[in-house]
Each structure stands twice: as structure tokens, then as C-alpha cells.
Known about the structure:
- Helices cover 69% and strands 0% of the residues.
- By secondary structure, it is mostly helical.
- The protein has one domain.
- The protein is globular.
Amino acid sequence: MNANQTHTSYAELNAILDQARRPSDLPVPVTDAQLRALQQRWNAMLSARLDETLENAGPGPLVDAVAETWRRLAAEQPVLRAVLDAGSRRQPVFGAATDTESRMLAHTAGLVGLNEPEADAVRVGEAFRERIRGAATLLAYPHRRAA
Length: 147
């Protein structure tokens, strides 16, 4: 953590999610540090779920199992996912946190090897996440309608 970063408490993040859960026409104010911490929370949950997916996977491609794991987590954590999706327009803020998610998805799904350059794993993982996210939008956020 450098001098420009501040510590974000677990209670603070829960308060943000509680506020986001309440109906409102205004977006929940979230600082850059809070947004990064929420992405790290998502990454930790996703990592645990992907570990479980790998443990229970049979032989064969993992792409569908990894995609389903992401979708299930998004459905179980709709408020967190909505806050992250709303904050995704602030891409420079996310930086390493979203890169971690992208690499995790690409590696776990077997879309890139462990020896692939990090930038390639991030690029492939981002494309995979967008594909998953597109299919998950109506599942995770049933109150939204396709345009």
C-alpha cells in the first residue's frame, strides 16, 4: 500500500453494499479505494468458488464450468456485482484487481497456459469475462430487461 492509498475496512464495504441494496435513483458514492477493495472481495469469493469447481470437475473442458461458477456467484452477490459493474467505467481505478480476475478466469478455464505472457492471459480473460457477463446479465439482474 502506498501513501496515496487508504485502508478500507470490512465494515465500510458492508455499509456501501447495504446502501446500494436500498432502492434509489442515485448511485452509491464509492471511492477509488473502496472500489478496489470491493473488486478484491469479489476476487476472493471467485477464487474460492473456482477452487471448488476444479476439485469437482470431471474430465473435459472447464470453460462451461468456469462460466457457470462466475454466473452463480453473480446471482448470489447481485449488489456487489452491480456496484462493480457500475464502477467498471472507471477502469484505471481497477487496474490490478480486474487483471487478477481476468487471469484467474483464463487460467482456470484452460484458455491460456501458465507460461503465457501475463498480458495475454489478461486479454483473453477479459474477453471471456465479457462473454460470461453478457450471458449472466438477465440471470443475475432479473429486474433488467434486454434492450
